Automatic annotation (TrEMBL):
Keywords: Signal. PANTHER family: BLR8190 PROTEIN (PTHR40260). Residues 43-119 form the EthD domain. The keyword Signal applies. InterPro entries: Dimeric_a/b-barrel, EthD_dom. One of its GO terms (molecular function) is oxidoreductase activity. Residues 1-25 form the signal peptide. It comes from Povalibacter uvarum. This is Uncharacterized protein (TIGR02118 family). The keyword Signal applies. SUPFAM superfamilies: Dimeric alpha+beta barrel.
Length: 130
């Protein structure tokens, strides 16, 4: 699957990702979106854009319970981590997550990913919280 197809999965919500949007997550604590970024070709450029441009767009997006971004540390044996960065956002339900990403601010966030993630992998996971 190419990057644009992967990005569009988020735009159509969980149904496109193979998770039923009719299943309620309210009784289980909601859902969590995880975005896992592979190692970029140029970490300095990635960081400059990610922190200076992309994350302010993310901060303007309202509706998530909580959002966190983190840079991955080396493994215990000193080897590189499997991913370079991780972003997590918690939502009340799959429908609420889809609605947040369907706002003008959410659309800007989705559209911005190719501007800094070119040359690396972007893996998205949506998890039902227990």
């Amino acid at each position: 699957m190419d990057r644009r197809t992967s990005i569009s999965l988020m735009t159509v919500g969980l149904a496109a990702a193979g998770v039923s949007t009719t299943a309620t997550a309210h009784d289980s604590g909601g859902v969590k979106l995880m975005v896992l970024y592979g190692h970029p070709p140029n970490a300095e450029e990635f960081e400059k854009y990610y922190l200076g441009v992309h994350m302010p767009l993310v901060a303007a997006m309202k509706g998530a319970r909580r959002m966190e971004a983190a840079r991955c540390l080396p493994q215990a044996d000193g080897s590189p981590p499997a991913f370079y960065r991780v972003f997590e956002a918690w939502f009340d339900s799959p429908e609420q997550m889809a609605a947040v990403f369907d706002t003008p601010e959410g659309k800007k966030v989705r559209a911005d990913v190719p501007n800094f993630a070119s040359g690396t992998t972007v893996t998205r996971l949506v998890c039902k919280l227990d």
